[in-house]
Amino acid sequence: MKKFLPLIMFIILPYLVFAQDSNTNTVSLLIMPLQNLTPKEDSAGSDNYRILFFGPIHNFIQIIPGVTLPDRDKLLSMNFDSSNVATFAALNPADFIIYGDYTLKGKTKKDQKLSINLYVWSQKLGAVFFQKAYTSGTEFEVLDAIDNMLEDIIAQTLQKQLAVATLQFSGFRIGNEKYGLYINEKYISDVSGDGFSMNLKVLADQNYQITLRNLSTAAVAFDQTFVPKKGEAITIGYYAVGVINIPTVPNKKSKSIYDLYLIHASETNIVSDNTVLSNIYAGRDYTFWLIEDKTNFVYTNTFTLHDKETVLLKPSLKGLGGFSMRLNLNDGLMLVAYGDYFWNNWFYTGLMLGASPVPLLGDWGNAFPGQTFMLSVAAGIDIGAYILGNRGTEGFRLAAGISARYYLSIIAPELLNISQVFSPQRSFVVGPHVMLEYDFLMFSAGFYFAPLANFETYQFPVTLSLGVRFHF
């Protein structure tokens, strides 16, 4: 049996061949699926051979330089009538139309044979100028029949002989990246995973432009031309790599020790600042740590390095403590401002001041004619800590705390200038809250205990708010 097309390629891999030099004239082909003429009583399973013949032949020829060929789905959907090829050719112009039929004969699998007829119709001649019959078994012998048909098709339409080489795709290290594989600008397959491999039989002594296009960015990751010789096998692989730039860490303490780590899965590498790390495997998630004095995680960042990307890290020591400001909307008041002091990377104490306009209704409106709103003011204290991430973490962080606030009297707008208080009533709330942060954005939720009328009644309000936080 011929060795051109192993069975595994028959199932999952396209056949590729280049049969003309790039400087030859363009030849247009239509390759129609073979018609199944098997009698109904013998037809069980016979339809499978329709695609079994069509797929390899189409894929084998589709990327030959100088050949134009419609894509697979278009050819399969064409309404072809072998009894009136001239009419079909007038509606679908092409230099050559390849078509045929097959019949499955035999009652048992052991005795079954395929009888195949192949025809090549010429637009120039307006007639069939080549026809040939083939006989094949139903298992590995089918591969020989396909080889024979391909050899005849190429010889009759392109005047080329079949001299075979192999392109072996293996050794890919691309992580989570995904690419489209193209040969001579024809799509062949998606490429994903480090275990991707493919063996393609091609015509020797032809140019093969191999291109990988990133499916996420459409950028060309790999573009190279190969010319394998007869019987030669060329191995083609690809490594996805990127660059990580670690600038100098500012504001280091002279008596402190700083360690920098770059981590992927179980791999931990010690790195240095003021360093550019080139040819780092891409398509992977990395975590960067900056640790002070062996215990204090002052900066962390988890990111994905993509192919040909440069990631600029910005390690800083802002998480060592200092001030922070929060501005919240709808946190029990229309606008609330917090001034927080961080004692270290995680723990803080804050003071708050908030205000909200309150509409004047009923007796309140009568007491201040001409006024529509009054101002409600509150002050309080907030104590909390980060439970996920810390002050120096980029990306998502989660903090929790407890706060107490005291609602001051409602103040009439015209009395603000002379600091007069309208009513001596006071009220306060106390309770826990959580804050989900992403960079400077923040979402908060609080649950409070609120006694009223000298503790005679109680309420348990829930507040939701959006805000921003800035560390200094």
Determine the number of helices (DSSP H or I, runs of at least 4 residues).
6
Task: List the domain count as a whole number.
Answer: 4
Strand content: over 45%
The best one-word shape is elongated
In CATH, the homologous superfamily of the largest domain goes by the name TolB, N-terminal domain
Q: Span from first to last CA?
A: 77 Å
Structural notes for this entry:
- There is one protein chain.
- The protein has 472 residues and is mainly β.
- It has six helices and 30 strands.
- The chain has an eight-stranded antiparallel beta barrel.
- Strand 11 and strand 12 form a beta hairpin.
- Helix 2 packs across helix 5.
- The protein is elongated and about 100 Å long.
- It starts with 6 loop residues before the first helix and ends with a strand.
- The N terminus is likely disordered.
Question: Which tags fit this structure?
Answer:
single chain, 472 residues, mainly beta, Rossmann fold, Immunoglobulin-like, 4 domains, 8-stranded antiparallel barrel, 6-stranded mixed β-sheet, disordered N terminus
Q: Quick gist of this model?
A:
By secondary structure, the protein is mainly beta.
Task: Please outline the helices and strands.
Layout: H1 7-12, E1 27-31, E2 35-36, H2 48-61, E3 67-68, H3 72-77, H4 85-91, E4 96-105, E5 113-122, E6 127-136, H5 141-158, E7 164-169, E8 178-183, E9 186-192, E10 198-203, E11 208-214, E12 220-226, E13 233-236, E14 241-246, E15 258-264, E16 267-271, E17 275-281, E18 284-292, E19 296-305, E20 310-312, E21 322-329, E22 335-342, E23 347-359, H6 363-367, E24 373-388, E25 396-411, E26 427-438, E27 441-447, E28 450-452, E29 457-459, E30 462-471
Parallel strand pairs: 1-3, 1-4, 2-4, 7-13, 14-20
Antiparallel strand pairs: 4-5, 5-6, 7-10, 8-9, 8-11, 11-12, 14-17, 15-16, 15-18, 18-19, 21-22, 21-30, 22-23, 23-24, 24-25, 25-26, 26-27, 27-30, 28-29
